[in-house]
Amino acid sequence: MTRAAASLVLVLVALSSTFTKYVPKSGQRIPQSLSRGWGDQLNWAQTYEEALFLSRSRNKPLMVLFLLEDCPHSQALKQAFANDDEIQRTLDEDFVVLNLMQETGDQHLSPDGQYVPRIVFVDPSMTVRDDIVGPYSNRLYTYEPTDMKHLLENMKKAKKLLKHNEI
Amino acid sequence: MTRAAASLVLVLVALSSTFTKYVPKSGQRIPQSLSRGWGDQLNWAQTYEEALFLSRSRNKPLMVLFLLEDCPHSQALKQAFANDDEIQRTLDEDFVVLNLMQETGDQHLSPDGQYVPRIVFVDPSMTVRDDIVGPYSNRLYTYEPTDMKHLLENMKKAKKLLKHNEI
């Protein structure tokens, strides 16, 4: 499908959704996306359980992004993250991706506390890679918009799967 | 915002997303929606944890929908469900909604087994309402497309919160 045809499909989808029966009193809403703006072209997992399942079955590392929509740090990082071509391509081809606005019950995902934005990698063996950290010693798993190179290096580390290292 | 203006916004959003940098080799994708077609105008929770939090804080019952996208029964039910104006309005105004393609760790959500489609209500007190069942004795929490009235009656039962009943 060409990009022009894809655009047309997107427009038709957007238009068709305006003809659904129920419209809230406050007016038509734009359907929520699973990407939340962090990469509309990525296939996001919905839940941690689903993400773990996909990571194991595809033998691909999982990136878990914790964010809040009303957090200016999250929003600033989102811009850099979503517009970085290499990060997006690598995530699409080699990772399972999940973004969450709510903490899970798994405390391994918050090795140094619960804060946003926070990026934690999980190996397909379901081991949280708490050794893969960002550049800040006070919050090991956070990144600033200027840290995309550091993040990309960390993604390369995550791609070296633990099982392979052990062999 | 008028419906025409809302349509325009949707078209612009669709168009703008065609100008993002990264495009998968297989071609532009339509961003995934949290509704999965079960009600584009509803504010869907993403995870069970988030849904429980919203249900408690808003004192509204939670509807959990288990579905699979390649299951013909789920797809048939989706049509009836998404096009039922009263169900959609009631869910939007009085419920927290969550749809899941993956089971959670909470076995209370599968009182008679794990199957799809399955609809389970949870009280804001975080009690699974296993007393609210559909018309089929073999699979208590499933519904057919013709059962929307039964489902609506069950939604009314779920709206009578357990705490209120106890007073």
Task: Please describe what this structure looks like.
Two copies of one chain form a homodimer. Chain A has a single domain, classed as Glutaredoxin (3-Layer(aba) Sandwich), CATH 3.40.30. Chain A has helices at 3-16, 48-58, 72-82, 85-94, 148-159, 162-166, and strands at 44-45, 62-66, 96-100, 118-122. Chain A has a four-stranded mixed beta sheet. The longest helix of chain A has 14 residues, at 3-16. With 167 residues, the first copy, chain A, is α/β, with parallel strands linked by helices. The model of chain A has no long low-confidence stretch (mean pLDDT 90). Chain A is built from six helices and four strands.
Coarse shape of chain A: globular
What is the H/E string of chain A? Answer: HEHEHHEEHH
CATH superfamily descriptor of chain A? Glutaredoxin
What is the CATH architecture annotation of chain A?
A: 3-Layer(aba) Sandwich
The largest β sheet of chain A comes out as: 4 strands, mixed
